[in-house]
Amino acid sequence: MQLHFIESGPALLVEQDRRVLVIADLHMGIESGLERHGVHIASRSAARTGRVLACIEETEPDLLLLLGDVKHNVPVTSRQEYRELPGVLDAFRDRVTLRVAPGNHDGGIGRFLEPGELLPPEGALIDGVGYLHGHTRPDPELFGRLIVLGHHHPVVSLVDAVGCAARARPAYLYTDLDGECLPAPAGAGRTRLLFVPAFNEFAGGIDIGRLRESRLGPLSRCINETTAEVFLADGTYLGSPAALCPADGR
Questions:
Q1: Which of 29, 111, 157, 185 has the highest local Cβ count within 10 Å?
Q2: Residue limits of the Calcineurin-like phosphoesterase domain (predicted)?
Q3: Contact between 128 and 20 (Cβ < 8 Å)
Q4: Which residues, at least 6 apart from 141, have a Cβ–Cβ distance to it below 8 Å?
C-alpha cells in the first residue's frame, strides 16, 4: 500500500489494487451556518468544488471517498445546501465513482446520493483499508487494519526558536490504536489510525498535541502517544506530538 499526500487538498490518495482519493470534512454550506452567527461570507462552494476536481485530475483515482461531514448544518439542511449539493455531487460523480462515509453533520445526506453511494456510519472496508468519519465506534471488521478517519480536523502549530507561533497548518496524525482503550476482537492484529485534516478552509481544527484530551470521538481517546507521528499536508514528517508540544509548554 502507498499513501500519497495531496497538499492542494489537503487530500489523501490510498493506492493498492485501487486508487482511492480520500477527502474529509468538506462542510459544504458552512457559509449559511456562519451567517446565523452574524458572520457574512459569500459562498465558496464553487471554489471548494474546483479544488476537489483539481485533486481528481491530479490523482486519477478509481474512487472518490468523502469521509464525512459533506454538509455543514445540523440538525437541518439549509437552503444553501439544498441549492448547491446536487450540482456539487453531480460534478464529482461525472468524473469518478463516489462513496460517502456519513458524518455527524450529514443528517439527511442520503436524499442527495444515488443508490449504493452511502456507506454505513460505523465504517467500511475498501481494498483492505478501513474508512469511517470518526464520530462512532468502528465496525469490528475494521480492527487489525489501517483505519482512515476524519472528524477531528487535526492541525499543528509550528513554533520557532524564539517562541513565535506560526499559523496553524493542516496535519495528519498516524498512530497505533491503544488496545487498552478500545480492545480489538480476538486475533485482529495491529490496528493503526490515520487522522486526516479537514478540506474546508473555514472548518478550523484541533492542535494535534491536544487531540487525545479533546475526546472528540471514540478513536481520539485511543491515540498511542508512544507511537504517534505527525505529517504536514504535503507529507513532510515532523516527528512525535510530544516533541512538537512538550508537556511543560516550552
A1: 29
A2: 19-153
A3: no
A4: 125, 130
Residues 6+ apart with CB under 8 A from 170: 10, 154, 155, 197, 198, 205, 232, 233
C-alpha 221: how far from chain center: 17
| Residue corresponding to grid cell 524564539 | 162
Within 10 angstroms of residue 186's Cβ, the number of other Cβ atoms is: 6
Judge contact between 190 and 227, C-beta under 8 A.
Answer: no
| Helix runs in 94-170, H state only | none
Question: Directed axis angle between helix 79-93 and helix 45-59, to 10°?
Answer: 20
Question: pLDDT tens across 180-223, in order?
Answer: 888 888 888 899 999 999 999 998 899 998 888 888 899 999 99
